[in-house]
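Notes from the 1:1 (GR / supervisor)

We went over the backlog. Supervisor wanted to see one worked example end to end before approving the batch request, so GR pasted a single chain during the call. The sequence is below; no edits were made to it. Supervisor asked that the structure be written out right there so they could see what the output format looks like.
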Amino acid sequence: MRVISVSPDSVTTTPNATMTGLAAPSRGSSELSTWTVDMPAEATGPEHSVSREQVWTVTTGTLEVTCDGRTERVTTGQTLVLPPDVPRTISAPGRFEAHVAMRADAVVTVTGAEGTRELPWAR
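Structure output shown during the call:
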């Protein structure tokens, strides 16, 4: 058993959102990564795909996601399951917070960029 506390080292801020890493291999989890996302109103992340399924549960506000040519709004209390390897864009019509879970070995491909990236908050 392991209890994980948030520390400044587990927080990553990008131009689009703040991710706070919770469970991850670097914090004692062997298979899963979980984190929270706090995205301010009117922000939009880059179009990207993730090599593993992701599960997003919105805890505050509403997010908008476009995935595989379909756009959905996901509101407080709803859970979104995103398939692997399908381009998606996530945006915030108003500020939202969400809890995200995925396998820890996932990598991200940003549309138009070369190569893959690891998610530092998920490692």
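Supervisor's comment: Residues 44 and 59 are 18 Å apart (CA to CA).
Batch request approved.
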